[in-house]
What we know:
alpha/beta; seven-stranded mixed beta sheet
Amino acid sequence: MTDSDAVRLAFRQYSDSGPALLVLHGLFGSHTNWGWHNRHLASNHAVFGLDLRNHGDSPHSNLLNYPVMAEDIRQFMAQQGLGQCAILGHSMGGKVAMQLALETPHLVNRLVVVDIAPAGYTQSADGHQRIISGLRSLDLASLSSRGEADIQLGKVIEDSSTRQFLLTNLVRNRRGVSGYQWRLNLDAIESSYQNLRSWSSPGKPFDGPCLFIKGGNSDYIKPQHKNEILNQFPSAEIKIITGAGHWVHAEKPRTLHRVVADFLNQ
């Protein structure tokens, strides 16, 4: 992996005063999924919401793994003239944030990891393969509306909130062609899915301030992960938000905001 493998990430800057904070979304997401949190955190931080490669409005690439995504973040920081930043990452974005902190600790002054561990996952905890199959099942060329897409997707994915989250990636075809297209690079996500489930610690432990947040109803952070977290992030605090699953930011937004803001403002 070289600097030339990096892509120029799409982003939104929510404020320009205070210490810099980069917010990284999870798989199938974009910076807009964290919009409420980004706006609230912007009262004390210069918040940048980023679209990771193959997601949102960022470029597509066949390369999709944590080292290359961490390089995207380093290049973004250089392009924006940012020194040390606080980094908040959820799920896949949390692994990108951990990769960055372990490889280049001088760039990260505070780290928040939401509902993911520095560990490999042998199974998809919430049916990612089923989601990919569901997205591929839609006949994009013949779709006339998002409502029609929701009906079709409902045959595969029963949960309405999950469908609405996924359908934020559905956009009308450009250049006057009828039908819809995915903003996601489904081909790269599917072919690189094993890379996203895996984890290999890239260097020495990150000794800086670090907060891991677990959704109480989620099994992404299990009791056996505690040692792995502390081995790689020895200063880590681990907090549990009860009543929340993997999408803590959507299910318990105010509680999560309070926990994150308290940690960042210490």
